[in-house]
Amino acid sequence: MEVRKDDFRVHLITGTFFVCIVAGGTCLCLYIFLPGAQHTSWYPIAGFILVGIPWLFWLLTYCYRCFKTGFQYIQEERKFAKGFNHVAPNAAASSPATTTAQTESQANSSGSERRVHFGAVIVVGEDGDISHGEADNNADSREP
Questions:
Q1: How big is the chain by its Cα radius of gyration, in Å?
Q2: Region labeled Disordered — which residues (predicted)?
Q3: Tens-digit pLDDT profile for residues 77-95
Q4: Whether the predicted pLDDT of 41 surpasses 60
Q5: 59: number of CA atoms within 13 Å, CB side?
Q6: Averaged over 15-27, what is the pLDDT?
Q7: How much of the chain, in percent, has pLDDT values that exceed 70?
Q8: pLDDT value, residue 54
């Protein structure tokens, strides 16, 4: 945000809005305080237009930001849907063995083997029993 403070465009837009508001306020004050014979009919029209320019700018900026965010969300959804639909038929058509082989071949494409070794599985039952791995997996063999 620090970069925008020194940006010339910010000062230009702020100055333009200031001039519009002062000129519009001047036109409206002239219409109100000058006698009916001295003022012209364009003072209130010019005053409202000049005062309304900054309001219109901020309203359009707000709408742009809202719609931009919505459109970006829709575009990301479409990109995701395209990618998902593109991958889904290939995954559904291949068997698990083929998928595993493809994954391993992609992982090992650099020439080095990658293997992951996990430690023993420890399962804690509802009653606090601790079983280690598949040897104690049979619930009938355990004594209460």
A1: 36
A2: 92-113
A3: 777 666 655 444 444 455 5
A4: yes
A5: 5
A6: 96
A7: 62
A8: 95
Exposed / middle / buried, residue 27 (Cβ in 10 Å: 0-12, 13-18, 19+): buried
Residue 31 lies in a domain: yes
Helix axes 8-33, 42-93, angle to 10 degrees: 140
Q: Are 139 and 129 in contact (CB under 8 A)?
A: no
Burial of 17 (0-12, 13-18, 19+ CB in 10 A): middle
Domain assignment of residue 37, given as a range: 2-88
The domain tally of the chain equals 1
Torsion of CA 17, 20, 26, 32, to 10 degrees: -100
Residue 103 has φ and ψ, to the nearest 5°, of -65, -45
Q: In whole angstroms, give the CA distance from residue 12 to residue 18.
A: 10
- Entry pTM: 0.46
E strand residue ranges, 80-129 = 122-124
Q: Percent helix, strand and coil across the chain, each rounded to 5?
A: 65, 5, 30
